[in-house]
Design a protein that fits this description.
The chain is an alpha/beta fold and 352 residues long. The chain has 10 helices and 15 strands.
Length: 352
Amino acid sequence: MTAVNLGVPVVRSAPDVSARPESPHLVDRFGRVATDLRVSLTDRCNLRCTYCMPAEGLDWLPKPELLSDDELARLVSIAVTRLGVTDVRFTGGEPLLRPGIEKVIAATTALSPRPNTSMTTNGITLAKRAAGLAEAGLDRVNVSLDTLDPARFHEMTRRDRISDVFAGMAAARDAGLTPVKVNSVLLRGVNDDEAVPLLRFALENGYQLRFIEQMPLDPQHGWDRSSMVTAEEILDALGREFTLAPESTDRGGAPAERWLVDGGPAVVGVIASVTRPFCAACDRTRLTADGQLRNCLFSTSETDLRAPLRAGATDEEIADLWRGTMWAKAAGHGINRAGFDQPDRPMSAIGG
C-alpha cells in the first residue's frame, strides 16, 4: 500500500514579542484574542472522504509522537487557566478513535473556569458512545454529513456507513449533546443538488445545519476552486425553497454566518472561509495530536509544545511559548492571494 507522504512542517522560530502588551491572554498584533481552542486527538479516521484523503489512507503519526491523555489534559488546562481559553473543541481525524477521549473530556470539564466543550465527529461510532460522552461532561457535537443518499455516501466516503451516522446523530440528541450541528461540504457535480434536502432533514430532526466551503487542505494538494460550491450558490439554492433572513445577533468570532429559516427559530449557517473570509474576527488557536501549536488553520509553520513539555518545562514556560506563537499570527490565511502556499499537513492531521 502506498500512502501519501505528508512532509514535515516547518518549526516556527521564536517570534519577536518586544511589542506585545503585558497580557496573560492570547493576543495578536491585530487586536484579536484567541479564546477558542481546537484540539486534534488523532490524525486517523475510519472514513476515506474523497476530498480529505486518498483511498489507501495516509502515513499515520507514530504512537510515541502522539500526546498522552495526561499531556493533552495538561495543555488544555494551561490554555484554560492561564491563557483565557473559554471554548474547547476536540477534533481529529476522527476523535472517537482515541481510546481515552472520555478521560480527556472529563479532565477538561472539571477545570475552573469550566470551558464550553464540544466535539466534531463523523458519527460512525457515536451511537454507542453518546451517553458516555455526555456523562464525561461533553456539551454538544458537530457531525459531518455531506449527503443523505446511501449510495452517494458510499461513493464519497468509500464506506457503507450512513445508517451509523444517522443513528449517532439521534443518539447524541437523545443524550442531550445539543444542539447537534451538521457540517456539510457541497462539491460541484457530486452532491451540489442536496442543499435543500439537507436543510429539510435538519429541520425535521431538530439539528442545526452548517454548510462549509471546501478548502485547500487535502493531502494531494489537488484542490480546485472551480469544484467548490460557494456560499452565494448555497444561499441562492436555499432561497428558492425557504425564506432566509440574516440573524440579528453579532456573530463575533463564530465562523458561520447564520440565517433564520422561515422566520425562525430554526437557523442555517454557512462557513465561507474562501469567498467571505472572517480572519479579522478569528479567535481560534490549534493543537495537533502530536503537540504542535498552530496559530492559523493555514499556517505553514508550527511551534513544538511536546518537546518542552516532555523536557520538564513549567506551565508558565509553555504558556509563554503559546503567547508568543499567537502574537505572530498573520492577518489572514491568504487563500485568495497570488502565491498562496497550502499547508503541508492536511485537515485530517491539523484538526477541524
